[in-house]
Amino acid sequence: MLNRVGSKKSSKVRRPLKVKFSKSQTYSRVHKVPEIKFEDQSLTSFAGLAVFMPLLRRLGLKERLGRCFPRRKGSPIYAAATIALGLIIHIIIGFHRLRDVEYYGDDPMVKRLLGLKRLPSAATISRSLREMDAGDYERVRELSRELVCDRIVIIQPSEVFRRSCFDRACPERSRRTQHER
Hints:
By secondary structure, the protein is mostly helical. It folds into two domains: 48-132, no CATH class; 133-181, no CATH class. The protein is 52% helix and 0% strand. The protein has ten helices and no strands. It has helices at 23-26, 52-59, 61-66, 80-92, 101-104, 108-114, 122-131, 134-155, 159-169, 171-180. Helix 9 (159-169) packs across helix 10. The mean pLDDT is 77.
């Protein structure tokens, strides 16, 4: 093959970088809540997420999110529930743009909370969100409503609050709690 000057062009074949990772390279088996000690130790920027681990586990949030998303064709490395939980953590630690995942992509505490060895890139998160449909989003909204309503029943809000918000947000649970009195 000749270029404009007339000399031969190099015929080196460039191979694309490997972009996909296997599930074993992505998911971690470490799920233990780290022990919090008040002493001199090296902490990650997001070590405070350790406080959220027991809460997320008690709520069963990852499993409940998993039920919101039906299985898709193919086998994506990152499950939709993992992407959704990652977005929740993304907001908890104070980020709002998808590209901000680069700032904490190597943080071991974030990876541990999600049960991953490698966090998804902004492009992977974006693709995953694009594949979700209106039914997926509605099931997540219903889960959110269910979590809030369950908590409201447990803390037993004042009657004024109950009349103003609870009866409209959770009418079926509101009727059930009135019958229990």
